[in-house]
Predict the 3D structure of the following.
Amino acid sequence: MIKPGTRQNLIIVNRKPHGVYLGESPDADAVSRVLLPARQVPEGAALGDRIEVFIYRDSDDRLIATTDEPLIALEGTAVLRVSAVTKIGAFLDWGLPKELLLPFQEQTAKVRAGEDVLVAFYIDRSDRCAATMKVYPYLSTDAPYIPGQTVTGRVYQMDGIHGAYVAVDDRYSGRIPARELTKDLHVGDVLSLHVTAVKEDGKLDLSVRDKAYLMMDEDAEAVLQVIRDDFGGELPFDDKADPEKIREVFGLSKASFKRAVGRLYKERRIELAGGKITLCQ
């Protein structure tokens, strides 16, 4: 069966001025044929010849063949350029004459013309080619990375409870847990990340921060400055405070804050008493 979104090796069964009709067998009837437009027909092609083509739908929703190669494979992922945004969604340049629709309901963030977005390619319920920014089910879980390695990832979805979902190398499944989010991130951000764990299912846990021992000095100095400049030298809570309170004031996870406070206390630059942190004179 000739299906949209697939590459197929078909036979030329009829020739017309506007192109050739292809089928799976030489005796394919009119209903089972698909048009390859004249400008796409290889020079010297004759009846009975086989041609490898990609199948999609034209602007009139008819199946049509092309010898062009799309920039994304069915159920694969790729970064595509937004060419226009209309009342039904965004259209993406995927290397074919008719652009690929990214419906509004498949967008994880608002997109604009000229932007590059990570999407997956699927066939919708109406048997049409479409794109989605909800790429989680399409990402691979066999990344060749181990904890401690640095990778490049693209944020494709934000979740207030679970954190930021990231496509490593635009193809592998990863996540920055909410506890590791020390700065505002947005869909489309491309980041240098550290692999903190490889889960049993192959997905990656990631961190936007450097290794703890490298960041401790920097965090300690930042905590010291906030206590001095914003609180006059006395912070009205300590490292037992609610994680959200710590993140709101310092932009640090509770674990990072505790390490920084521990460093400052060990160096006798702060005092801990009465649920407060006070700078030493």
